[in-house]
Every structure is written in C-alpha cells, then in structure tokens.
Write a structure and sequence with these properties.
- The chain has helices spanning 8-32, 38-59, 70-97, 100-106, 109-121, 128-144, 149-154, 158-183, 189-204, 218-244, 247-254, 257-271, 283-326.
- The protein is an all-alpha fold and 327 residues long.
- The chain is built from 13 helices and no strands.
Amino acid sequence: MHISSGRWLYGLALALSTSLLWGILPIKLKEVLQVMDPITVTWYRLAVAGSLLLAYLAAARRLPRFRPLGRKGAWLLLLAVGGLTANYVLYLMGLNLLSPGTTQLVIQVAPILLLISSVFVFRESFSLGQDIGLLVMLLGFGLFFNQRLDELLGSLTTYTTGVLIVLAAAFVWTFYGLAQKQLLSLWNSVQVMMVIYLACALLLTPWAQPLQVLQLSPLQGWLLLACCLNTLVAYGAFAEALAHWEASRVSATLALTPLVTFVSVALAASWWPTHVQPEQANGLAYAGAVIVVLGSSLTALGPSLLASVRARQARRLARAQAASIQR
C-alpha cells in the first residue's frame, strides 16, 4: 500500500497548482474553440502530451511492455481509451454551449460518479460523511441553477443540451477512471497516460483536421499550445501531489477548481472583455457553486473524517481504561 511522504505542504502546493491549471483551462479552450472543432482540439492536446511522454520514457528507457497486459489488460486499455476520448470530446462540445464556470461546475459530478462506482466495482466503503457531502452537492447544484430550473426541466434548449452533454462527459470519464485504476497494477502512471494519450489521438485521427491550426490567430495558437501543456503539467502535478499527501485531501483541494474558474473568468472578463464574457449568474447561483465545492470536499474527505473520529474515540477509551486500572 502506498504511504505518502508526509511533506503535506509540498503536496498542498502541487494540488493547488493542479486546481489552478484545471481552473483556467476552459477559458483558454473557449477561445480556441472559436476556430477549431472539439475533435481537432482534443487530437492536438492528446497527441502533443502523449508524444512528450513518449520522448521522456524513451530517453529514460522505461517504455511500457505490452505482453504483461494479457487479454484482460487489453480490454481495460480499450475501455480507458474509449472513456477518455469520449470525455474530452463531449466536454468540449458542452463547453461550446455553456460558460466556462458552468461547465467546470457540472463536470464535478465525474469524481463523485467514480466514487460511487468504486463502491460496487471495488467494494469500497461509502461513509455517512460522504452521504452528507453528496446531499450538500445536490443542494448546491439546485441553488446554482436557480435561474435556469424551468429551462432545464421544461424544455431542451441549448443550455439544457450543454448541461446534458457535460454530464455525459462525466459519466464516460467514470469508465476511464475505473479502467485506469486497474491498469496501474501493471504500469506506472506515466506509462499508462502515455499509452492512453497516444491511443486516443490515433482513434481520433480520421476525424481530426490538423490544418485548422493555420486559421488560428497568434493568440489562439499560443493558447492551444498552453492547453496541450496544461494536460501534461496538471496531471504531473496531480500525480506528484498524491506521493506527498493523502489522496482524500488532494481530492478535496481539487474540488476548488470551479471556484478558480469563476474567479478567473471574472478577472479575464474585466481585463480582456473582447475575448472573455462574464458569467451570467446571480448571488444565489454563486452561493450554490460554493456549496457544491463544500459538498465535493466533504465527500472526498469522508473516510478521513470518519477515521479521525474513530481514532479520537479509541484514544479516549484507552485513557479511560488506563485511569480505571490506576484506581
């Protein structure tokens, strides 16, 4: 079993870096999507990130071997590739129809779905604290969509379609997450991501239009490159954070990502109003976004909180028993 290094401050810094990178990503993608289609943008992101990882692993002589995969591993790899490809494309399709903040908030459903799926697939436990966190999240979503509830529930508008597409992206990401978790028993995380990135790019090649990059403005070209590197650096910081801090606390920190997006959009809209549009949300919606983040954090920290309570109870019981013996 992996044990964190205990350098929690370093782990916190890495987790916050990941949250920042993921938080500003949809703002950059939104600008690039004005010229390029979602499939081509995804193809570039995966191809660049996968190629850089391939060069790194080749130089380090740590390229993965496929023979240990076997038939079961091959099916897991196919599931991971299909799940991540669909997630990336559907996320961008939804982002085309929604604001960056709304898209980033709705995609928060993905880790919750993975957690619930792990209960059934890996027989992991789901504590009372996580149940409460899930209910808090649902309350937060209700408040966030307070201005759009009639539209969401009553008709299939562009906004509703965008929300449904992002929810579909979260759903297929769950299959990727479950498959990747199993693949990590055969390869390390860098090897897994390299193979999956390149396989996803290969899968999308027949539909990608790489020459669209020539239509980008210089600013959009730099933003596309930033999106490609974001995919690589953010996941690298995330993996390194897990080496130094507990997974539950890293996940709780990453739940801040939607708030990073909302703040980034507000700043970008004031600095570059011709490129970034402000979020169309009232005070109740912003309060709902904060509640969603709190619920997501509580869901991630549920097992740790329960373990902490049990540890305190055990210490009290031990002290009481010691006191009774002394009497």
